[in-house]
Structure formats: structure tokens, C-alpha cells
Amino acid sequence: MLETDTRRDSIVESLLARGVTRRRFLEFCAATTAILALPVTYEARIAEALETAEKPTLVWLEFQDCAGNSESFLRARDPGVADIVLDILSVDYHETIMAAAGHQAEAAREEAIARGGHIVVVEGSVPTAHGGVYCTIGGKTAQQILAETVQGAAAVINTGTCSAYGGIPAAAPNPTGAVGVPELVSGVPVVNLPGCPMNVDNLTATIVHYLTFGALPATDGVGRPLFAYGERIHDHCERRAHFDAGQFALEWGDEGHRKGWCLYKMGCKGPSTFHNCPSQRWNGGTSWPIGAGHGCVGCSEPFFWDTMTPIYGRLPAPPGFGVTTSLEKIGAGIVGLTALGFGAHGVAKAVQRKRGGDAVQTPVEIDRSALRTGSDEEGGER
Amino acid sequence: MTTTPRERAEAAAREDPLQVVATAGCVTVRVWQLPVRVIHWTIFSSVVVLSLTGFYIGTPYLSVGSDPRFVMGWARAAHNLAAFVFIAAIVARIIWAFTGNKWSRWDQFVPISKARRQNAWAGFRYYTFLTRTPPPGAGHNALAGATYLVVLAMFVVQIFTGMALLGLEAGGAPSALFGWVFAVLPIPWVRFVHHLIMWTTWGFVVHHVYSAVLMDTEEKTGLISSIFTGWKRLPADRL
Question: Is the peptide bond prior to B135 cis by the omega test (within 30 degrees of 0)?
């Protein structure tokens, strides 16, 4: 599969050749229909599309990454589905898993680009500082490789937060000038599948959507498909009832934590994060971070890492006060200092009043004698 | 105008006898009309509810144990309800700034005219101990007016961030109208600003009450009671 074969099989042919049964194939179609939140009637349409569609060529680029999305990709659910995932795609270039190396590998990428109509998957951010020296492959910078590879591509799919928004490499102080792919690519449809890593079910579904409808799925304001990122984690969390009830884990391993209460006070970023983790889950649907007893870290949001830290705090640390000072402490300090300041002002005003006499005359004088007389004479009459 | 203060007061009384009662050298004026007072206390009470519930939502200091009371659910419901009361009050006050009497008009809050700039300077000198004489005027002095403009700006930011955060959960109109906020500021920082403004609002309340007491003892115009009754008694030339 990873050799550069120019023969384009239909997906179903190659699945049958690999011993995937028709039942298994239809199960996959049903699961993908569910992930895409499509009505059940679309299952047949998806199956039909996958039976007739040619395997799309996939070029998987890795830049400033940890290969976590490749890991996610290779661990698709269970062996049967993994086969399907890998067989839907003709992965012509993937640095981590391809057999070819050196010039042969680069030739595979160039061939795919020459044919055109390929899907570019990007993993990792692209460094732009100092001429892009922080990530070069075969003598070319990441920026050059990206620009070459998206030529004539049908779509760009960003897997993981790094290629979508810059991610951890772009965290302050961002020494490599890392940026996400959307900032560098224009003229080709781009979709973001952020997460650390992305969930492979969402990648599969995105590609199936593309094969079925000929277009990338509808996205939100930051380029994420709505089927996977349209709902907030907090609103679909299995611990949400504990949040509304006011039941919170206050310490790791305390009674609330053992009982599976809400992790809000432990810094859970579920209320700030849009992703289908609660419903789609991870590792073949076995579990997910909050299910395993740890708060969400907000990995699929733009500006993760900077805006989602401290991981165990509710809000970002107030700038200039150090990470241990909470905003509420500073807020109470603001009120306290205001009270102190005006208290002191009041004392000083009282002293000034007692001493009598004006230091300086006001330019707009008022008739204070009339005021005094008025209130003394007419007091209580109104 | 070459009229005496007394003549001015009488003229004002002829114009609107309900609002001005002239007495010897002094007038009693209904400075704060009913809507102004109602809006003031609506804002105050909604801010109290919003702060108490908001502080609980941000920092849930109670964990209710095994007998759930739906505390967070109720706190959030009360917060949302009070928020709409608050928004209505702010909108009403902005409308009243263009339809109310001269002491509630928008130009009381924007020190752009020469007279208001001079008044602000006089207020500054009073607060910095350069003079014992408080700035003249029947309504807000120019410095106080400008402070309320800053407070209004804080409230507007609070409404925008709050509605954007509501949109995260509710979707629909709040999301459509205020979703752009997150293009300016990432979600956690929107929360940060929303919390910070709650605290600065209470800093303002401290200042506001202090200044009201200070001015009341200084001017003896019945400033404190005026926010309940609307009336102030002051020398006619201050009208």
C-alpha cells in the first residue's frame, strides 16, 4: 500500500482483497454516517460513494510535530477498521510509515503532486523565523515543501492543533516563528482537525465526506468541521449533571473525585472547548480524558497552549503576578485598595475641612452662604 | 444672560412647576426623574445578584456533597435572568440620556463643552485638595459624569463578554450576535475580562458611595436622599 503504485483501485476492491467482509464495510459506513451526524439514509449513499470512488492519493507532511497524529491515525479503532481507513486512502507519502527513503521518498511526493487532485494532510506547525531553518527536509524548508505540495491539491487537511493553529511550537515565546498551515496556504480548501492529537474517527469521516459529497464538510469560524467541533465538551459531558448540582471534586482522589463529580474546580477546560470527545471518545471508543478522571485541557482550541494554561487552574494567570496568584485575589485586592485609598482621602478631606480656608479659589464660585441659609431656614418644610 | 439667580429659578419654575420649588435664595429641584432613580436601583440590585451568582459560578465555594441541590443550575439561571434585567436597565438609561431632563442627558457624561471641561478641572482640584470648594452644578459634576462614562464602557464590555459566553452554550442569537468576541479574545481570556470587570465594578461602588457621602457632607444639598426622592435643595445660581 505504501509503495508508489500508480494503479488506482476502487476502495471496495482493495478492501475485499484485504479480506474485509461486506458486513464489516457496511458497519464502517454506518459508524461514519453517525460521526458525520447525517441521517441514517445517508449510509447507503456513503457505501455507494466508497464503492465507486477511486482511492484518493494522500500526501502526509510532517513538520514541527511529535507524530502524535500519525499515532492516532495508525491506531484507528480496531484492526478491521484500521484496514478500511488505510485502504480508503492511498498514502503515497508519509515520512513515518513509508518504506521508501531518501530520493525515492521525495520522488513519491513529486509524482503525487504531478498527478494533482491529491489530498494533503499536514501534521505539525510551520516555522517561519530565520528563513525557516528550524525545520528542513531534504534541504528544503517546511514552508517550501508545503508550498510545493499544495500545488494542484484538492484539499488540505490539518491534523492536530499544531498544523491548524501553531499549537505547542507556537506557544510563547514562539522562538521558531511557528504558524498554522491556514496562514500560509491560499487557493486550496483547508479544513482543520485540531486536537492533541486529532481523533482519527474525525479524519476518516472528513475524508468520507469529501468522497461522498465532493466537498469538505461545513466548518465553524476557525475552520473546524461542525460535525466534530460544533458542540461544546461541557454540554455533552457525562459529569455535567454534577456541575449543575454543584458537586465538585476539590482535590485529586477526594470523595468527589472518586465519585466522578465535576472537575471544574480542578481546572477542566470543557466549558471553553469544542470537540466531540464526549460522544466519539478515544481508543476505539473506550474512554476519554474526563471519563478517565482528568479535566479537559482544551487542546483543540486556537491558541492552545497559551490560553489554556494553567492546566489545573480555571482562568489564565493574571499577567505580571506569577502563576500562583489568582484573578479573584487580585480582584479582591482592587476593591480593598480602592477602599483604603478613598478612606485615606476622606480623612485628608476632613482634616482640610477642619483647618478651613481655601488654598486656591475656584474659577467658578458658588454662593455657599445662600446654600447654608437655604437649608437652615427651609429645612423640613418640603 | 444677565438675569439674577432668583429670576432664573422662577423662570425654571414657570417652565415646569412640578420640578422646581423656589424658596428664598434657594431652589428645590427634582434633579433625578423617576426613570433615572428606578434605573439606578435596578442596575444596583442586578449587579448585586450578578456578582453573587457570578462569583459562585466562577469560584464555586460550595460543593454540596451527596445531596444535590442543583446549586450551580440555579445560580446560572439567576445569573442569566439578572443579566437580562441589567441589560434592559442599561439600554433604558442610554435611551433616557437622549429623552430625559438636562441632568440626565448624554452631555453630562462627556466633558466636551468648555463649561464641562472647566467643571471637570474644578472637580479635579477639589479631589486633589487644591480647593475646599466642590465643583458647582445641580446634577453630576463633570468629573463624576466622565467616571460614569467609563463605568458604562465597563458595563458594555461586561454585556458583550457575558452574551458571548452565553452563546457558547445557548447558540442561537447570542452566538450569532456576539460570537465575534472570540475572534478578538480567546474564550479563557473572555472569562478573565468578565471576572475582572466584576471586581472593578465593586471598586467603583466603593468610590461611588464614598464620593456621594463626601459631597453630601460638603454641599448639604441632600445628595444621598436625592437618589431615593429625586429632589435636591441648592442655591438658585447652581441650577
Answer: no
Which of A58-72, A96-110, B150-164 shows the lowest mean pLDDT across its residues? A96-110
Q: Which residue from B28, B59, B125 is facing A382, i.e. has the nearest CB?
A: B28
How many percent of chain A have pLDDT more than 70? 87
Distances (CA, A) of A169 to A84, A127, A165, A183: 32, 9, 10, 15
Please give the pLDDT value at position B4: 64
Q: Which of B73, B195, B202 sits opposite A315 (nearest CB)?
A: B195
Interface of A with B in 213-272 (CB under 8 A): 221, 232, 234-235, 242-248, 250, 256, 259, 261, 264-265, 269, 271-272
Cell 473525585 maps to which residue?
Answer: A257
Instruction: Let me know whether A159 and A78 are in one domain.
Output: yes
Q: Does B117 touch chain A (CB under 8 A)?
A: no
> Does A198 share its domain with A134?
yes
Range of the domain at A242: 233-308
Mean pLDDT of A81-98: 73
Q: Is residue B162 scored above 70 in pLDDT?
A: yes
Residues in contact with A304: Cβ distance below 8 Å, sequence separation at least 6, in sequence order: A161, A165, A167, A168, A194, A196, A297, A298
Closest residue to A272, CB basis, from B21, B122, B188: B188
Same domain, yes or no: A251 and A291: yes
Across B56-62, average pLDDT:
86
Number of A to B CB contacts under 8 A, please give it: 204
Whether A19 and A55 map to the same domain: the answer is: yes
pLDDT at B15 over 80: no
With H, G, I as helix, E, B as strand and everything else as coil, classify residue B26.
strand
Of A345, A362, A378, the CB nearest to B125: A362
Q: What is the mean pLDDT of residues A241-265?
A: 93
Q: Is the pLDDT of residue A80 over 60?
A: no
Distance from CA of B2 to the nearest CA of A (A): 17
> What is the pLDDT, as a whole number, of residue A77?
61
Q: Do A247 and B118 touch (CB under 8 A)?
A: no
Backbone angles phi, psi at A178, to 5 degrees: -65, 135
Q: Does B193 touch chain A (CB under 8 A)?
A: no
How many structural domains is chain B composed of?
A: 1
CATH of the domain at A252: 4.10.480.10
CATH number of the domain within which A167 lies = 3.40.50.700
Instruction: Report whether pLDDT(A362) > 50.
Output: no
ipTM: 0.83
Q: The dihedral of CA B41, B44, B50, B55: what is its sign? A: negative
d(CA A196, CA B31): 61
Q: How confident is the model at residue A374 (pLDDT cuts 50, 70, 90)?
A: very low
B207 touches chain A (CB under 8 A): yes
Let me know whether A298 and A186 are in one domain: no
